Amino acid sequence: MKRALVTGGSGLIGAAICETLAAEGLHVLVHAHQKPERARQVVEKIQSDGHSAEAVCFDVSDRKATAQSLKKILASGPIQVLVNNAGTHEDAPLAGMSPEQWDNVIQVTLNGFYNVTQPLLLPMIGTRWGRIISISSITGVAGNRGQTNYAAAKAGLHGASQSLSKEVASRGITVNVIAPGIILSPATEAHFSATDVNNLIPMKRKGTPQEIAHVAAFLASTNASYISGQIINVNGGML
């Protein structure tokens, strides 16, 4: 059974990805940092559906702690599907953005990509098969006022993924990015009115976490073996 690690698996999109990958027959490691109880709930849901999962907890922005956690994970075998979904945002206009707001977002989203992906690469390469998928945002593609730090971190994922895809292409490993638009969540409910949705999204509705999960599951499958180095926009036609 192939093993998948989904960072930020305790969030709405992460949980949907975990559940979908588990339903496809993978053993899923559901990662969390600040909400380990939520990761355990996702695991319980997956197991109640008859699938395989376990919870793991570490801070992706802490390189040493992440390395220690991944060493334990790798003791049970390689990770062949990695979904880099962990991220955060601390919005502010750049003129008023503190160094901490800049650093925190870069540390979790971009440095977290390195901290998790790099230790898993050689074991994955050894299997001659792997899928690395990072969850970005429409902000990383088009930018957004008040999110310079977030846009920089997400756009950094794009360049890193496109470069990495070239390094591992001959080893049976694909590397891709999914860039969601406005997805149903308590946060988007608070920030986007029905009028906003109607004006911004050609499809006139928000996406669902499950719609992102289905794309991730496809990219993680053998059916997507010739797709690599791509930024896949899932945004209802916004771009």
Secondary structure topology:
Blueprint: E1 3-6, H1 12-23, E2 27-32, H2 36-48, E3 53-57, H3 63-74, E4 81-84, H4 99-127, E5 130-135, H5 138-142, H6 148-168, E6 173-180, H7 186-191, H8 194-200, H9 209-219, E7 231-234
Parallel strand pairs: 1-2, 1-4, 2-3, 4-5, 5-6, 6-7
Helix pairs in contact: 1-2, 1-9, 3-4, 4-6
In short:
With 239 residues, the protein is of the alpha/beta class. It has helices at 12-23, 36-48, 63-74, 99-127, 138-142, 148-168, 186-191, 194-200, 209-219, and strands spanning 3-6, 27-32, 53-57, 81-84, 130-135, 173-180, 231-234.
Task: Tell me what you see in this structure.
With 239 residues, the protein is of the alpha/beta class. It has a single domain (3-182, 210-234), classed as 3-Layer(aba) Sandwich (Rossmann fold), CATH 3.40.50. It is built from nine helices and seven strands. It has helices at 12-23, 36-48, 63-74, 99-127, 138-142, 148-168, 186-191, 194-200, 209-219; strands at residues 3-6, 27-32, 53-57, 81-84, 130-135, 173-180, 231-234. A seven-stranded parallel β-sheet has the order 3-2-1-4-5-6-7, sandwiched between helices. Strand 4 (81-84), helix 4 and strand 5 (130-135) form a beta-alpha-beta unit. Helix 1 runs parallel beside helix 2 (36-48) and helix 3 runs parallel beside helix 4 (99-127). The chain is globular and about 50 Å long.
